[in-house]
C-alpha cells in the first residue's frame, strides 16, 4: 500500500478518536447533572498538554520507537475511555464526578501526546520515502479533520450524542489505532546521542524570548486568545439543544442535529487553511491575528443572536467564521514563531507557543468560562428558561475577545510590512 495512503488512514483514525466525544461530551455531562463541571473536563486537556507530550517525546527520542509508543499510548487511552463508558452505562442517573473525571483524565493524558507522535511517525515515513514533508504532509493531515467530522456525524446519527457510548466509540477507535500504528515504518531512537534536558523538551529555554518586547507581547496575547479555544467545544451543543425547550423549536434541525451543525466549523477550518499563505503575505502577522480575534468576536456574537428559526443563518455564520478564528490564530501564529526565532531555539519556541495557547490559555479560559456559564445557566433553579442566560454568556465571551483585539492592536508591533 502506498505510504501516503497509509498515513492518510493513520491521521483519519487519530482525529476520529477525538471527534467522537470532544464536541458532544457536554451534552452527556449535562444529561447526568454534571453541566456545572463541563469546564473541568475540557480544561484538563490543556493541563495535561503542559507536560505529557514533552515527556512522551523524550521517551520516543531515547527508549521506545515513536510508532510503538504511539500504539502504547492509544492502547492505554482506549482502555481508560472504555472504562469511562462502562462506568457511565452502569451508573445512569447517579454518575459521580470524581470517578468519571478520573477515568477521563487518564485517557486524555495518554491521548494528547499521540497528536505529536502521529506527526513524528508521518514525517519519518515520508522522509524514508524521499518525499518533501512540507508538500506531502498537509494533504495527508487534512484527512485528520475529515476523520474528526465523520466521528461527529456518526455520534449524532446513531443517537449517542447524549450518552456515554460516545466514549465507547472513541475507545474502540483508539484500540484500532493502537494496532494500526504498529504497522508504520520504524522510527529511530537516540540512546547514545546528545542528551536533551527536561527543560529543553518542555520548551522552557524559550522563555528567554520574553526579553524581546514584541515576542513577549505576542506570547501574552496568544495566551489571552487561547482562552477562547475550548469554549464552544464545551458549550456549543448544549446551547443549541437548549432551544429544544421551546415547543416550536423542539423538532428543529438545529436541535436534532446539533453535533452535525457544529461540524460545519471543522469544514470551514479545512478551507480557511488555504487562505493563510495569501493573507500573511498580503496583510502581515498583525492584521492576520486581528482577523482571528475579530472572528472570535463574531463567533460568539452570532451564537448570541442566533436561533433555530429566522436566526438560523447566524448560527451557520458562526460555524463558518470559526475557520478564520481558529486557523488564522493557531497556524499563522506557529508560522510567525518559526520565522522570528533562531534555529537553535525554534523547537522550544514552538513548544512555548503551544504551552501558552493550548496549555495555560485554554485551561484558564475554560475554567473562567465555566464560572460564567454556571452563574447564568446551570445555577438557575430547575425549570428556569436558560436561553437568556446562554445569550448573556455569549455576549460576555464576545466582549472579552473584542477587548483582547483592541489591546493587541495597540500594543503589538509588526516589524514585517504587508505587501502592497
Question: Structural class of the secondary structure composition?
Answer: mainly alpha
Into which percentage range does the β-strand content fall? under 5%
Question: How far is the first residue's CA from the last residue's CA?
Answer: 46 Å
Largest sheet: none
Determine Rg (CA atoms, Å): 21 Å
Averaging pLDDT over every residue, what do you get?
91
Determine the CATH topology of the largest domain: Growth Hormone, Chain: A
CATH first level of the largest domain: Mainly Alpha
Q: Quickly count the domains.
A: 2
Approximately how much helix is present in the residues? over 70%
Provide the succession of SSEs. Answer: HHHHHHHHHHHHHHHHHH
Report on the architecture of this protein.
The protein is an all-alpha fold and about 425 residues long. It folds into two domains: about 1-190, Up-down Bundle (Growth Hormone, Chain: A); about 200-415, Growth Hormone, Chain: A (Up-down Bundle). About 75% of the residues lie in helices and about 0% in strands. The protein contains 18 helices and no strands. It has helices spanning about 5-20, 25-30, 40-50, 50-60, 65-90, 95-130, 135-155, 165-180, 200, 215-225, 230-240, 255, 260-270, 275-285, 285-305, 310-340, 345-380, 385-410. Helix 4 crosses helix 6 (about 95-130) and helix 10 (about 215-225) packs antiparallel against helix 18. The longest helix is centred in the C-terminal third of the chain and has 33 residues, at about 345-380. It is globular. The model has no long low-confidence stretch (mean pLDDT about 90).
Amino acid at each position: 500500500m502506498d505510504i501516503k495512503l497509509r498515513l492518510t488512514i493513520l491521521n483519519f483514525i487519530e482525529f476520529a478518536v477525538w471527534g467522537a466525544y470532544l464536541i458532544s461530551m457536554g451534552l452527556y455531562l449535562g444529561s447526568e447533572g454534571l453541566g456545572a463541571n463541563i469546564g473541568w473536563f475540557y480544561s484538563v486537556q490543556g493541563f495535561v498538554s503542559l507536560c505529557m507530550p514533552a515527556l512522551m517525546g523524550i521517551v520516543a527520542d531515547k527508549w521506545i520507537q515513536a510508532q510503538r509508543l504511539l500504539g502504547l499510548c492509544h492502547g492505554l487511552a482506549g482502555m481508560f475511555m472504555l472504562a469511562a463508558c462502562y462506568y457511565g452505562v452502569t451508573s445512569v442517573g447517579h454518575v459521580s464526578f470524581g470517578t468519571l473525571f478520573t477515568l477521563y483524565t487518564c485517557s486524555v493524558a495518554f491521548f494528547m501526546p499521540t497528536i505529536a507522535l502521529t506527526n513524528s511517525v508521518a514525517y519519518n515515513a515520508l522522509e524514508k520515502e524521499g518525499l518533501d514533508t512540507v508538500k506531502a504532509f498537509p494533504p495527508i493531515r487534512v484527512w485528520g479533520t475529515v476523520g474528526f467530522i465523520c466521528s461527529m456525524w456518526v455520534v449524532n446519527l446513531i443517537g449517542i450524542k447524549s450518552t456515554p457510548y460516545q466514549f465507547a466509540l472513541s475507545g474502540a477507535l483508539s484500540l484500532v489505532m493502537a494496532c494500526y500504528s504498529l504497522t508504520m515504518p520504524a522510527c529511530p531512537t537516540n540512546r547514545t546521542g546528545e542528551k536533551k534536558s527536561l527543560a529543553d523538551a518542555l520548551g522552557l529555554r524559550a522563555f528567554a524570548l520574553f526579553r524581546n518586547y514584541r515576542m513577549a507581547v505576542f506570547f501574552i496575547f496568544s495566551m489571552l486568545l487561547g482562552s477562547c479555544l475550548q469554549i464552544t467545544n464545551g458549550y456549543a451543543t448544549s446551547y443549541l439543544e437548549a432551544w429544544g425547550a421551546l415547543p416550536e423549536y423542539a423538532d428543529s434541525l438545529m436541535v436534532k442535529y446539533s453535533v452535525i451543525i457544529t461540524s460545519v466549523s471543522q469544514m470551514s477550518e479545512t478551507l480557511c487553511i488555504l487562505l493563510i499563505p495569501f493573507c500573511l503575505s498580503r496583510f502581515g502577522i498583525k492584521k492576520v491575528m486581528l482577523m482571528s480575534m475579530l472572528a472570535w468576536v463574531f463567533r460568539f456574537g452570532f451564537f448570541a443572536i442566533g436561533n433555530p428559526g429566522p436566526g438560523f443563518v447566524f448560527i451557520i455564520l458562526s460555524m463558518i467564521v470559526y475557520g478564520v478564528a481558529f486557523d488564522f490564530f493557531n497556524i499563522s501564529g506557529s508560522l510567525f514563531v518559526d520565522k522570528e526565532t533562531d534555529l537553535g531555539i525554534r523547537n522550544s519556541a514552538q513548544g512555548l507557543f503551544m504551552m501558552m495557547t493550548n496549555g495555560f490559555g485554554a485551561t484558564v479560559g475554560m475554567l473562567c468560562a465555566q464560572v460564567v456559564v454556571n452563574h447564568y445557566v446551570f445555577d438557575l433553579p430547575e425549570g428556569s428558561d436558560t436561553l437568556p442566560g446562554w445569550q448573556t454568556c455569549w455576549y460576555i465571551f464576545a466582549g472579552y475577545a473584542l477587548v483582547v483585539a483592541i489591546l493587541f492592536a495597540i500594543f503589538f508591533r509588526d516589524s514585517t510590512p504587508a505587501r502592497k
